[in-house]
């Protein structure tokens, strides 16, 4: 009578396959967690930019053609924004660019929005 079972080599190969699969799963989960923080920052930065756009529209006057800087508190963090009006081909419209950074000295903004206002 022959005993049915797995050899030691087969068990070791199966464990190696499961170990590689486990490492891939852990790396994937880690990448998702780190990406989540970045997406959260971009979402808050987008809300800050939307707030600045709404404030400029509610002012009821043309946005300045030079950059205007400021900061805003949201979600326990300080966000650094700047906006500028941009002349368009149509004199009754002006573009409004808003940029938001997580740090004042960041070279590139997290979010850049453009909208148009008319007078």
From TrEMBL:
Signal peptide: none
Bilayer topology annotation: Single-pass membrane protein
Chief location category: membrane
Entries under SUPFAM superfamilies matching the protein: Pili subunits (SSF54523)
Keyword Oxidoreductase: no
Processing after translation: Cleaved by prepilin peptidase.
A Pfam entry, by short name: T2SSI
All copies of domain Type II secretion system protein GspI C-terminal, residue ranges: 39-117
Keyword Cell membrane: yes
Keywords: Cell inner membrane, Cell membrane, Membrane, Methylation, Transmembrane, Transmembrane helix
InterPro entries: N_methyl_site, Pilin-like, T2SS_GspI_C, T2SS_protein-GspI
Location(s), subcellular: Cell inner membrane
Record-linked PROSITE patterns: PROKAR_NTER_METHYL (PS00409)
Family: Belongs to the GSP I family.
Functional description taken from the UniProt entry: Component of the type II secretion system required for the energy-dependent secretion of extracellular factors such as proteases and toxins from the periplasm.
Subunit structure: Type II secretion is composed of four main components: the outer membrane complex, the inner membrane complex, the cytoplasmic secretion ATPase and the periplasm-spanning pseudopilus.
UniProt-recorded name of the protein: Type II secretion system protein I
Species of provenance: Pseudaeromonas paramecii
Source organism phylogeny: Bacteria, Pseudomonadati, Pseudomonadota, Gammaproteobacteria, Aeromonadales
């Amino acid at each position: 009578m022959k005993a049915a079972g797995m050899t030691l080599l087969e068990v070791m190969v199966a464990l190696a396959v499961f170990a590689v699969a486990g490492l891939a799963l852990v790396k994937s989960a880690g990448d998702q967690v780190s990406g989540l923080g970045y997406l959260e920052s971009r979402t808050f930065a987008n809300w800050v930019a939307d707030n600045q756009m709404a404030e400029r529209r509610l002012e009821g006057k043309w946005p300045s053609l030079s950059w205007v800087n400021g900061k805003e508190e949201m979600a326990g963090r300080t966000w650094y924004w700047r906006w500028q009006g941009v002349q368009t081909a149509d004199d009754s419209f002006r573009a409004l660019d808003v940029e938001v950074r997580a740090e004042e000295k960041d070279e590139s903004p997290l979010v850049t929005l453009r909208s148009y206002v008319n007078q």
